[in-house]
Amino acid sequence: MENKMKVVVVTDAWLPQVNGVVTTLSNIMKNLPEHEFTVIDPSQFKTISAPKYPELKLAYNPWQLKTKLDALEFDAIHIATEGPLGLFARNYCESRHVNYTTSYHTDWPNFINKFYGIPCSWTMWWMKLIHRNAKRILATTHSMKKELEQAGLQNLVVWGRGVDQSIFTDEVKIKRGKKPLLISVNRVSFEKNIEAFCELSTNTEWDCVVVGDGPARTSLEKKYPNVEFVGYKHGKELAKWYAGADVKVFPSRVDTFGLVMIEAMSCGTPVAGFPCRGPVDVIDQGVTGYMHESLEVAVQQCLKLDTDTIKHTAKQKFTWPKCAEIFVNNLIKL
Fold first, then answer.
1. Pick the CATH number of 6-162+320-329 from 3.40.50.720, 3.40.50.2000, 1.10.3430.10, 3.40.190.10
2. What is the pTM of this model?
């Protein structure tokens, strides 16, 4: 790839949202200073909140994307999401015979099925519409790549993820009591299966804390009074929670990766999760964490692991420079 490229990234998710898409894209750009990026996101359009998901703002005049793209000079275009802007970016490229790449961050078929009851097959039809003609589709993990290939998509590349090693360290730790501290760092919504984490609070030997916020928080706080909810934390403040925890619990069964897992590992904290896509691609069983159909068993096994080994393994395996290199090497020049 050339030393200097003008790259347009079209995304339905961007700052100030806190999610894997935003974290990934912002870190990719940070690690590619030699290239010029232009981000087109919902803040540049009229928006409406997604039902049951008020943080997610959707453009309802996405046809204006055409005018914005026509006014730009760019060498490559990447479509990062499958919302209204993603669809209209795809249509723009198709109508002008412009090569484009895409990325598959979120398991929308299962997410939308759990949230709204819409059949997975319907949403997968939409996903295939967005991605099927992309010259490259960047997938989060080998498991996700295999699933998408089975769905009929081609030109897939495993992208992976990284962690900011200047932030996520074990230098400063949150101080709690004498009980082992278990944390879950997630958006507090039902599809994230946070309730499975909250159930661990029935073991009064453990101190359970949810770091995050979302629509399920109020009901879960009432149902699980032994679980403390501390809201969103960011940067060094979040790193303190990771470093101070004895185990980071990842209860989700629908995530395509789970950045919070590698952030915790970078701080030397083991991850307990279910043996499903996401954890099986990230956790080295018995080394950086433990997977089991019983989260309680997984936590107990995590408490036996060596924190220095966890930290060293994570920092060798997950880096943003490596992730950025894969991204730029798979862009298609116009």
1. 3.40.50.2000
2. 0.88
